[in-house]
Amino acid sequence: MTNGSEELGLTKSTIQYDQTMKRLGSVFLLMMTCAVSLFAQTTDIVVKEKEGCDEKGWCWGADIDATKSKWTFFSDEVKAKSYASAEANYLWLLENVPYINKGLYVYGEKMYKALVKAEQKAKGDKVTYYEDQLLALYDYRAAYYPKSKNSMLNKKGLVYMPYIKDRGEMDWKNVYDFYNSVIEANGNKTYYPNIQFFFSSVAKLGKDIPVYRQKIENKEKKIPAIEQNIENFKKADQPTAEFEKQLEAVKAEIAEIEAERDASPYNEEWVLDEYDRISAILNYQLENAKNEKAAAPVRKVQSFADQTLNQIVQIDCDFVTQKLAPKFKADPTDGKLAEKMFGYMLKFKCREDNPELFLESAVAFYNYKPQQVTATLIATQYANEDKLAESEEWYTKALELSGDDVAKQAAVRMSQARLYYKQGKKSAAREAAKKAAELDQATAADAYSFIGDMYMGSGQEYIDPSDAVKTRFCYLAAYDMYAKAGNSKKMAAAKKQFPSKVDVFTLASKYKEGSSYSVGGWIGGTTTLRIRPE
């Protein structure tokens, strides 16, 4: 390390720190003011005009020699990990030449992270001070290097919640506003811990939702008894006015609670909107994760969001039909609402309970955001209802959305094939599988194995008590398909079902090993007669 302390006329870092802090009283007070506000908002910074800039992009200010001396001492101290003594020069540079170079903030970040860690370990009294200095550093860098603003918000978010969570009562609205700004700035690039911190603030702001729900449930519990009294008194030809008055009073109380709940900006709909927003980001990150190691922590955050949501809002099929469906019926063109309904009906398996609503929301969502997977699901639903013309129309849409991607096209056809088979439409299923094989060589093995499986499962249809050889033709045809697929394991299974030597010998007048014969039935075509291995 260069002898910067001697050049400055200082012999001990502690002496230098005290002297420099006296000269930098204003900047110190600024930092401590920031600490009091818990950094709910970004630091107020008046950006200074750059001075003394050289051709390499360094700006040394009005006193170039002094700045260079301070920078040399500061950078050398950081490199030597003498962080406590390095801070005084950092503060001088921040006060006088905050535009010197991005290196000021790179080194400063390293310095304050180390100081925070050391002070926490020592249980010192400057933890909060160092934490706030680091938070302010991110604001300063964003102010003087605007291109880094988004990434600085992202970085600041990683430490903001851990730093302020134990500093007394939290202002969750400010916490929400900060992390909302992080997400708005970074979108799909938002660090996953920041997403978790954000949804924690959403949960805190929406904490009264379960309280309202419990109040309503408690009131609703009174209704059956009152209604029973009304019924009993009517049967006894007794006046029911008092009970009817009680019933109206309870219903009025429920309506009042519901109105108060719905008037809050932090209601169920708001929570669901925020949940959907972060889920979309997390889903993007999962889809683009390089490996499982990268995906695992993102999946944990999604799990946290799911569990947190379930504690606040009770989402099930009843919620969809009672809360969302009326709004959707009022405006079927609301794409965002359709997307929400469609997603919830899939997640909570509501399509069987209300297939009509599922189709309506799916089609509305498709019109809002045309996607291959949505078109495929709509096609499947129509096929389940035996509306094959509509089903084929939507499969065609799914294929069109596949573009030139033969793998996607083949996936659509295989989806179609499996659905047709499930419905007992074997010929249609085979045709779809063959199209998949023709479209994509990589899908061919799966497609031909699928056809082979259908043939293997058709044994009952080919039983002929008078012809033991013909009874086995479906297995010969299955073997042919497995051979096309290169599926040796299933080929071996099919071979075990070939006609035996005895079967062929008994019907020698009709059959000869190696000759070609018509399979018949729905399978059709021809196959070569082979004998089961002994």
From TrEMBL:
Coiled-coil portions: 216-292
Keywords: Coiled coil
InterPro entries: TPR-like_helical_dom_sf
Protein's recorded name: Uncharacterized protein
Protein's organism: Sediminitomix flava
Source species taxonomy: Bacteria, Pseudomonadati, Bacteroidota, Cytophagia, Cytophagales
